[in-house]
Specification:
The chain is low in regular secondary structure and 80 residues long. The protein has one helix and three strands, in the order E-E-H-E. It comes from Cupriavidus basilensis.
């Protein structure tokens, strides 16, 4: 099950579980659409994988399957 991490690893922007702006790689590294496209060129700086739109979990399932509350913030790997 996807973790649905709460923020962008580059800029720490909030990415709630229903955000259409979240991008992930196959390891679930999470970035906002702006950082993924403009700073990273659609490539994860951690694993080199493709960054794609993160699926949104139906609101009715969030109670039983909550998103992660663990933030990952690693701006040093995101260029300038």
């Amino acid at each position: 099950m996807l973790q649905l991490r709460p923020g962008c690893e580059c800029c720490d922007r909030d990415l709630p579980p229903d955000s259409a702006q979240a991008r992930i790689c196959s390891f679930e590294c999470t970035f906002c659409a702006d950082c993924a496209g403009e700073r990273l060129g659609g490539v994860c700086p951690n694993c080199g994988g493709e960054l794609v739109a993160r699926p949104r979990r139906p609101a009715g399932k969030l109670g039983k399957f909550p998103p992660s509350d663990a933030r990952v913030f690693k701006p040093q790997g995101c260029g300038t």
